[in-house]
Amino acid sequence: MSSLPVLVLNSGSSSIKFSVYEAGGGQRCRLFEGAVDGIGTDLGKFWIRDASGKKLVDETPPLPSRSVAFKLVADALNSGEFPAPAAIGHRTVCGGPGIQENQRITPGIIDEIESYTDLAPLHTPIAVYIMREALRLFPGIPNFAVLDTYFHRTIPEVATRMPIPTEYVEMGVRRYGYHGISYESIVYQLEPELPEKLIVAHLGNGASISAIRKGRCIDTSMGLTPTGGIISGSRTGDIDPGVLLFILKQIARSTPDATEAAEKLETVVSKRSGLAGVSELSNDMRDLREAIKDGNAKARLAVDKFCWTIARWIGSYVAELNGLDMLVFTGGIGENDTASRSEICAGLGALGIVLDPERNNVRGAATISAESSAVTVRVIPPLEDLMIVNHVVRLMSA
Ligand code: AMP
After folding, report:
1. N or C: which end of the chain has fewer CB within 10 A?
2. pLDDT tens figures, 54-93
3. What's the gap in Å between 288 CA and the centre of ligand 1?
4. Phi and psi for 229 in degrees, rounded to 5?
5. What are the phi and psi torsion angles at 386 (to 5°)?
6. What domains sit in the chain, N to C, each tagged with a CATH number?
7. Using a 6 Å cutoff on CB, does residue 332 contact ligand 1?
8. How far is residue 34's CA from residue 51's CA, in Å, rounded to a whole number?
9. What pTM does this model have?
């Protein structure tokens, strides 16, 4: 295949991140990246920088809506100043039970993804909006959905099946797992010396862990939605279902409409819980570390709960893998918060995991285990955009 510019779009609640890669044959070269940030504010940020880091665009436009924000991106990329994209890859959190393969986006595919908004209510409405806009503003250019659930398609049924009546399973309720593009990129970076028994902890504002045997995912902590699994910035993670029923009954006293009550419950479990809920301060690890320095006991408890949960989960995955060769930390916390890494690993000495405090005192890629450690512990930043480009190129040539 001749060389083609591939645009990667990754949309969040207040930002749209993008990058353009030149892709051809086995070559991948990032030409530039950018973002519009601060959607919903009068003073947004719009920047594009080239591969050397030089800013090509640096503006502070008003961004009253997502529509205005995405039009800025499309106008810039269609202006002739940058190589116009020949294909577009969309990071897609979840496609529901009918869409588990990465594939070309059509209006019908967008409708299908949208019909399962309940599986990822924070992400899917934004993703489908951007898909529709991309089809409209880049006419004739093929768009592809690259799914965060795709890497988890190898998880056996014993782990994906929820212990609930089959009628709900038939509606699509199962463990899907998320952060799959990040996990795939860690496996990609470890090849060709991929360890057989691998655990990856993707610790960001959303956090999850996966157990990977010979490059294939065998279990992951997030479930039907990204709210499941380990505690994260503002989400509960797995929780006794009785707690949900208790909170729902409290909400129902003042909110008799069932849908409205369910939405309020969703706000509690997805936006008001996790690190933010326990600390009553912030969902951001940097804020919590600052507060801990000032002796804030609630911040200390929130971070202890986070590290304790992760250590427990790693222990259970070692049992599933029947051993462990390598533990990898990634994501904003995994890559930068040295204290979280050491607090998590402090509880794992019985598994032969020993960190070297000096090696651990880094941000970014490094091996941080001690020579005496039975398990190699590494920090590896993910390469999600590159993985999306690889899938787009594969699908274009298929
Ligand atoms: P992500 O969702 O991957 O962007 O990660 C966001 C999380 O990473 C937030 O909780 C941040 O506080 C945390 N984070 C980012 N940089 C640092 C840092 N230098 N030290 C500690 N935590 C950080």
Report:
1. C
2. 999 999 999 999 999 999 999 999 999 998 899 999 999 9
3. 11
4. 95, -135
5. -60, -40
6. 5-147 (3.30.420.40), 194-379 (3.30.420.40)
7. yes
8. 11
9. 0.95
